[in-house]
């Protein structure tokens, strides 16, 4: 353990607390989303939890642990989200797209009930390929940057650029056959709340079962590669005499790697916190488009003020990065992922790649950014938030993302990209 990193970590944590207090003085939402982001980033790095890994890990190694962890995350989040939706429904709430017309109260998170269409499938496939070329999904890219991966910094730049490109093209997509043939379905409208929960949990259980069976087949074929933690991440031997202020206690709280299930519980808590405090759900990539908009507009490349996608976002664009709650959340994820290895005393910068790799990282970022825009979300917005808010679109995006992910893994292996 590098003790100087621990001191730096606590100094940065203290500065984030001070910054949060400052942001709270301007708008409580800025501080709230900063805290949520810091927590998500810390948890994702500490548990190595990621959405892209749920496809890549099992396909490459046969280890189903992360895939099963994702099904656990989706399940516990669904149960709580369904209760929140139902509570709003019995009090006169309605789904966002109907509530806008009727004037009813909006069910929290129901603005993520998006139309399922051909663009959902195309965007999901593009995103899946991109996240394998880039080595991570949307939230994973943010945590990669925080962890010191040079790859993540390259991917984030082109991810944001691709998101802006997709935002520019949205008027064409929305008028095309890819959007016009669609089905927007809030699953409780057909199956009821209990039926939707039961069917969704059955779907997650089926994926869990398939993943488990696949792992068993890989074990029998002697091709299973079970992940081994680094020595410093493992549990230390229990001491006979417990001491609160000791190396062992610090290791347990700040160093020892968390399980995927621990990570899932904390991520679910943050997801629900966003839902109940804002009335909307967790998304990542729309913020990337705004980041690119700020950047390219500042150097005179574009003017987004007359773009249709930015029509209802110009107030936040004019307010700037530090006055945007979503930007605070995404920035918090980066810093939270930075804090985790610092506090563990094991932070390192990672720049092991060549020019060929950089080209594919850039392509991966562009594919993810563009795919997320036309699919109306990424692994977080279209998948996690879509499924948890009981939208048919989430179930359409899931196999599309999986197919794209498998194609992406094959490309990475064939092209020998350093991920």
Secondary-structure map:
Layout: H1 3-26, H2 28-47, H3 53-61, H4 65-90, H5 96-102, E1 116-117, H6 118-133, H7 138-147, H8 150-175, H9 177-180, E2 182-183, H10 188-220, H11 247-255, H12 260-278, H13 285-298, H14 314-319, H15 325-344, H16 355-374, H17 379-388, H18 392-415
Antiparallel strand pairs: 1-2
Helix pairs in contact: 1-2, 1-15, 2-7, 2-12, 2-15, 3-4, 3-18, 4-10, 4-12, 6-16, 6-18, 7-8, 7-15, 8-13, 8-16, 17-18
The residue-averaged pLDDT reads: 96
Runs in which pLDDT lies below 50 for 5 or more consecutive residues are none
**Strand order in the largest sheet:** 1-2
Give the strand content. under 5%
Instruction: Give the proportion of residues in helices.
Output: over 70%
Radius of gyration: 21 Å
**Number of beta strands:** 2
What is the number of helices?
18
Shape: globular
Question: Gap between N and C termini, in Å?
Answer: 26 Å
What structural class do helix, strand and pairing data support?
mainly alpha
Taking the sheet with the most strands, its summary is: 2 strands, antiparallel
Give the SSE order as H and E letters: HHHHHEHHHHEHHHHHHHHH
- Work out the count of structural domains: 1
